[in-house]
Design brief:
Helices cover 24% and strands 44% of the residues. It is of the alpha+beta class. It has a five-stranded mixed β-sheet, with no helix packed on it. A three-stranded antiparallel β-sheet has the order 1-3-6, with no helix packed on it. Strand 7 (91-100) and strand 8 (106-115) form a beta hairpin. It is rod-shaped, with a radius of gyration of 24 Å.
């Protein structure tokens, strides 16, 4: 009769657990590599009507990403946050947010704002 927790069984279980954790870790890194860049826009809302032509752009992108709005480069902080005020023209304005990560993958999001 062999003990239930024999050294050989413990080694086998330890190796299996290590392989599982390594697979999960590498899978999450691979998903991050192939995924589109993160772009979370806090303001402005998707569709907005305003009286004043000034609007604040605020949100978060991945670190080391480049962000442009209608071709204008927006400064991104070291923590990935951006916060900048821009002036719009009266009428309908379409803001095209383009973010490009360090692997040259891009993501686009559009917000529509009407200035009365």
């Amino acid at each position: 009769s062999t003990p239930y927790l024999a050294p050989r069984r413990m080694l086998t279980v330890g190796i299996l657990i290590s392989i599982i954790f390594l697979t999960i870790f590498l899978g999450s890194r691979l998903m991050r590599f192939v995924a589109v860049p993160q772009l979370k826009i806090e303001t402005p809302a998707k569709e907005l009507t305003l009286e004043l032509p000034n609007i604040e752009l605020r949100g978060v992108v991945e670190k080391e990403s480049q962000l442009t709005v209608n071709g204008r480069t927006i400064r991104v902080g070291e923590d990935g946050k951006f916060d900048e005020r821009i002036e719009l023209t009266s009428g309908l304005n379409a803001l095209e947010f383009w973010v490009k990560d360090r692997f040259e993958k891009e993501r686009k999001e559009v917000r529509y704002i009407v200035i009365k």
